[in-house]
Amino acid sequence: MESIQQDVVWEVQYNLALLEQLSAGATSEILASNQVAPNITLDNFEIMGGYADGLGGIMTAIFIPFVAASKREEWEEYSVSHQAWIEESDRLMDVHAKHLQPLKGTAQDHETDKHDGERKEDEIEDIPNKIWKWNDAGEKTVLGPLPDDHHFLAPLWQSSPAEPSTVNVDMFSDSRFTKLYHTMRETKQAVMGSATAIGPLFEWIYTQDDRDHNLDPHAFLMEAVFANFSHANEVVEPIGVIMAVTSYKHLFERILPEGANGIYVVLTGNSACGANVTFLLNGPEAAFVGYHDFHQGLDQYEEVIPLELYDTVTEDLCTHDLHIYPSPVFKDIHNTNKAM
Q1: Domain locations in the chain?
Q2: pTM to 2 decimal places
Q3: What are the C-alpha distances in Å from 88 to residues 46, 84, 91, 126, 139?
């Protein structure tokens, strides 16, 4: 049980550290290329995000710049004229010898391969040429005139793997992103959001056959990106964020050996989180049970540990406790009359 706790908490910390690494790499490239925010395109982002995916449970890494409302039209023109990174992402996926293709399913990560074969050059879509948003019904709509107090936008720009259809969606139209952004700013650290179904905006991270997993609990992770590295006590505003999507299921897969069946794990969140979630571990497999505490375990053997190890915790930051319960099945398997 202690081993499960250590592995799961370590996985969360590792995924957040990967985002911090991607953010530092983005800042380094911005400085080296002399690009000026918000008009920034990160060369070889397919490779950067692919390594992050291959080393953890991250399913996609995304760069989202912040665009002042007054520069909206300028950004739209820039994005259309600089969308060649999508074609370059496909090329890098094919030719880079050590590239760990996102969603491929390495020894560390557990996703399926989104690409059923090479995408031909003439099949590459053009990106949406206007910033758009999700409406309350979860439908794609044109972003209309902005109110005077709407100071900046967060158009999704580069993703690994590349997905043209999501480009230029204003992520501030997604309440989950907005909430996570504010907690990231408030705590000044990489953060992970509460459990949520990812919905149609990110359904492309699964193959058509696996789309039912969209309803499983997923999390957004976020870290700020800066135009330069600040000095002590210097306040520097972020010019964007690196965001990632992961499945909570990935935290619990492949941490038990074959035959170690019947362990329930329950994540209970504070008031800033959504619903609690329950998984059942049978050896290396983790099955999502539901959005509630559904454990059928032996409460007298419960083990509890904080899931996230944040340096700063605020009222609006979602944090979880990880509860582990052996089930009666697990107890029966491990009962023995032999001397220990």
Answers
A1: 2-251, 261-334
A2: 0.89
A3: 8, 6, 5, 14, 29
